[in-house]
Specification:
Helix content: 40-55%
Strand order of the largest sheet: 3-2-1-4-5
CATH class: Alpha Beta
Distance between the termini: 11 Å
Largest sheet: 5 strands, parallel
CATH topology: Rossmann fold
Number of strands: 5
Order of helices and strands: EHHEHHEHEHEH
Number of domains: 1
Shape: globular
Radius of gyration: 14 Å
CATH superfamily: 5'-nuclease
Structural class: alpha/beta
């Protein structure tokens, strides 16, 4: 049964999800999404960031293509309509802005990350910014 959770996973979560470790919480997150337990949100910018980072880290092309195809087919695409936050709400890493914008514009309930820059701004947004394990506990 699908929950009402709408999440945006950060790139570090996506990269870690490709781990061969069966106990990886990030891998579990993706498996549970594929089992339709929650809605995964993406924007064109987040999709490009996933692609860029996976390629930079030399992931096999078939893994990248398969994963991005799953996102485009099974996740909900978010159109970015507003672009500005108060200055204290911006993450320090400019690459992270795409994930915050996707979460804001997509009415996300969670932005899932391990990035300390994103975790620093968690009290400034309407959605929860948390690590994977915290989200998985809430999903129960």
């Amino acid at each position: 049964m699908k929950s009402l959770f709408r999440i945006v996973p950060d790139t570090n979560v996506i990269i870690s999800a490709q781990s061969k470790n069966p106990d990886s919480p990030n891998r579990e997150l993706i498996e549970r999404w594929l089992q339709d337990e929650f809605i995964l949100l993406y924007s064109l910018d987040t999709l490009q960031e996933y692609f860029r980072k996976l390629r930079e880290l030399n992931f096999a092309e078939e893994i990248i293509i398969s994963f991005l195809a799953d996102i485009r087919t099974l996740a909900e695409r978010v159109e970015i309509e507003h672009y500005h936050f108060y200055s204290y709400q911006y993450p320090k890493d400019r690459d992270d802005i795409a994930f915050v914008l996707c979460a804001e514009n997509g009415n996300a309930t969670h932005l899932v990350t391990y990035d300390s820059d994103l975790l620093e701004i968690r009290s400034h947004h309407s959605f929860t910014i948390c690590q994977t394990i915290q989200f998985l506990k809430e999903l129960l």
